[in-house]
Design brief:
29% of the residues lie in helices and 23% in strands. The protein is α+β, with helices and mostly antiparallel strands. It has a domain at 67-139: Surface presentation of antigens (SPOA) (Roll). It has a four-stranded antiparallel β-sheet. Strands 1-2 form a two-stranded antiparallel sheet. It is flat. The chain starts with a helix and ends with a helix. The mean pLDDT is 77.
């Protein structure tokens, strides 16, 4: 037997011993299955209630879910060679026109439009238009 074959045989023996040490999983008894079924109960979730005007109330269960809000000033498409030539003071032309509203996105989906404002030396956005449900659906495509 060669050294390589001896090593392979030793590994096989080690693996065989490791598998032999593992005890087979115990078979579930009928009593355990019955008690589990008796302990199981349907989950009781509060329902979201829709008012006659279409607004949804009882949103307490989702109020702590974090979302990412971003404001998009505009977009453009440029070649990598042009991107690499950008330097300090370079101007990149965007597809949006000056004065056109910025888009407010939540998790990448359009929810509103607005205009830039400065508050205490920080940029902010003043909402000017909330996207309608049909607009939001059309942006999904």
């Amino acid at each position: 037997m060669t050294n390589e074959q001896e090593t392979g045989a030793t590994l096989d023996d080690q693996w065989g011993a490791a598998f032999a040490e593992q005890a087979p999983p115990p078979e579930p008894s009928k009593q355990n299955e019955t008690s589990k079924k008796e302990d199981a109960r349907p989950a009781n979730f509060g329902s979201l209630k829709q008012e006659s005007n279409g607004t949804v109330t009882n949103l307490d269960m989702i109020l702590d879910i974090p979302v990412t809000l971003s404001v998009e000033m505009g977009r453009t498409r440029i070649m990598v060679k042009d991107l690499l030539q950008l330097g300090q003071g370079a101007v990149v032309e965007l597809e949006k026109l000056a004065g056109e509203p910025m888009e407010i996105l939540v998790n990448g989906r359009l929810v509103a439009r607005g205009e830039a404002v400065v508050i205490n030396e920080k940029f902010g956005i003043k909402l000017t238009d909330i996207a309608s449900p049909s607009e939001r659906i059309s942006k999904l495509r």
